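During the second year of the project, the team shifted from modelling isolated chains to modelling whole assemblies. The rationale, set out in the original proposal, was that interfaces cannot be judged from single-chain predictions alone. As a representative example for this report, we include one of the complexes processed in the last quarter. Its constituent sequences, exactly as entered into the pipeline, are reproduced here:
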Amino acid sequence: GAWPRVAMEASELWVGFVGAGRMAGGLVRGLLQAGKVPASNILASAPSDKNLDAWRELGCRTTHCNLEVVHRSTLVFLATKPHILPGVLEEIRPAVGSHHIVVSLVAGVTIQTLQRLLPPWTKVLRIMPNLPCVVQAGAMVFSRGSNAGDEEAALLKSLLSSCGLCEEVPESYIDIHTGLSGSGVAYVYLFAEALAEGAVKMGMPGALASRIAAQTLLGAAKMLLETGEHPAKLRGDVCTPGGTTIYALHQLEKGALRATVMDAVEAATNRAFDMAKN
Amino acid sequence: AGVLAAHKITASSPDTDLPTVSGLRKMGVNFTVSNKDTVKSSDVLFLAVKPPIIPFILEEVGPDIEARHIVVSCAAGVTISSIEKKLSTFCPTPKVIRCMTNTPVIVREGATVYATGTHADVEDGKLLEQLMASVGFCTEVEEDLIDAVTGLSGSGPAYAFTALDALADGGVKMGLPRRLAVRLGAQALLGAAKMLLESEQHPGQLKDNVCSPGGATIHALHFLESGGFRSLLINAVEASCIRTRELQHLADQEKISPAAIKKTLLDKVKLESPSLSVASASKVSLFTNRSKKN
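Output from the structure prediction step:
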């Protein structure tokens, strides 16, 4: 049959999610928070109701049928687990048309693979978000496939900028983004935990220490983003000669924290790359 | 640097066989074996003996110190108050300035700081600053920072030489001839230091500017970080500073090693390394309103 003409206005956009897990949930919450797309225009599919309950609570529509999502949406987010995706793509392939914009959140699945498993005219984009999209403080990078043009990229960017930082990159950066920011969120949690533990050791109650640790990270990050200054300079600004900060930093340097962090980013990036190969 | 004419400089050492002595003579510096003569013919007196010797020198030349003299001590760990105390038995208001410099003054790229004593005027400090600024960077500091300066720029050249030796080894390992490796390594550090001094940017930013994504430099830096490069340098500065304080503490308690005492026999002193070069600035009008001795 005839498909409805694509409306590029976000408010008239029909958005679908195939897969309704944590990452998809983060994105949709961000979208809704920003008020770009009404919940009633969002349809999500998942095999069980386990995840879908939360989506319905947000006002989204839900289904167990992936094809329905594709039929009723223009912008389709693929958010399944990596090993599930090939099967899902085979299932929805007949319903994918040239008006669709398919955006994959699936870790480790390259644009090349997506384009291979979808009709040749499909507009494909690949995005790597991170969890804080949920609180509109995410960091996302996306790349476009052969048929995705400036319009699609601009649409995606405008929709998702409400969730945080959203930048288009060459696909080769996506694994690096995983190592830096996708997994990076976990490094920060680890650091926050350690900070708080240090404070507890020195006599502060845990709950208070945790809140202060989180606020410290938030505040420092905010200053970085807002001043645009080099982190080394901001660090120097905090270090009064012979003061507490420089003493503490010396400890961090003794522990080769910098190298360890670099190792972490490298390990996660390499792992992402290896997983994508398989 | 052309700030002083050589004939206005007098240097003394009990040992005339030192290689530095003939070097100074060749430059036209007046040389004497008498410390007293040096004091008498000078306005600005640099004490450049080893720290344990300072008290003995002060005893020796104390009677000849006059109000006009500016006594500049370069001895590590020797406090202004200890010098003033020693001299006050001879002169009621001795002008003392303590300075800490470093070896690259030889090539006029020294790093010098000074602290003025109780009776030294602003003018006296400025005179010293002008002299030392001719051989590098010179600025005034509070005396309690001098130990830290020792740890950083006093010992600093040694850290740099060590780094350069190792960098050259790296070059040699990767196929460069030694001489070229040393030359390139030194130039790299010189250039980097110059860039930093001439730039408004933070060294971290300058570092970033050299590191292209996924490139050679960032790979190398990762190795440095893994080895705790930064903390090693912090440790070094700290160790040198702390040791300086220790030595100063020992000196304050006048715990001089027997070996040092042996060396201070005033009639026959043989210092192990050149520590002479007491300079004078008589007849130099660096300040037009300064009265000069004729």
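Residues 1-7 of chain A have pLDDT under 50 and may be disordered. The CA atoms of residues 232 and 238 of chain A lie 10 Å apart.
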